[in-house]
Amino acid sequence: MTRFLLLLAASALLAGPALAQPRPDPDWPCVQRKVPTLSAGSVWTGPDLAEAGSWGDDAEAALLARKVASRRTELSEVDPLLDAFAEKAGEEKAKRLTRVFAGAFEILNGERVKVIAGIARYAQGQRRMAERIRDEAEKISATKDSPSASDAAVSKEIADLETRFAWDRRIFQERSQSLTYVCEVPTLLEQRLGEIARKIQARL
Fold first, then answer.
1. Which of 17, 166, 169, 171 is most buried (CB neighbours < 10 A)?
2. What residue stretch is flagged as signal peptide (predicted)?
3. 107 inside domain
């Protein structure tokens, strides 16, 4: 592999979709706009959350909030759960359903914050790896251009460098592909929260 092709390959990685465009936050590699935390008002138009009381103090509301917030619970399963809870709540239905939303919001928003922090760490690791790949490409080229390049020991060093370069480049590309899916998670959590809010508000 020539010096030009090596550097071209390394530069292509550094200019990949996840790192290509200058962004206000260099640690945010996603196409989706970064919204660090959600506000309840962006999805909730029901009663004031504070006036409903602490959702953590209502054991049944807290249990339901955790269940509907969990992605293991299909959204189609949420409706009968809410109906059963609302029927049992009686005259306190509005207040207790509001607590369920407050709990689901806190859980999903907290999970989303952690995912966003994880994406930032992921992007930092990708940036460091891209820089290492570029350094490896430059080292391979410089070693090949050296007068002793034909020596057996140097030839082995070049082969080892090229193996490491190819391995790191493969890992980088696989992680870049995974990042595309990871970037969708905050949006999916926000959509889930919006759907839960809609379902609860329909029962107030």
1. 169
2. 1-20
3. yes
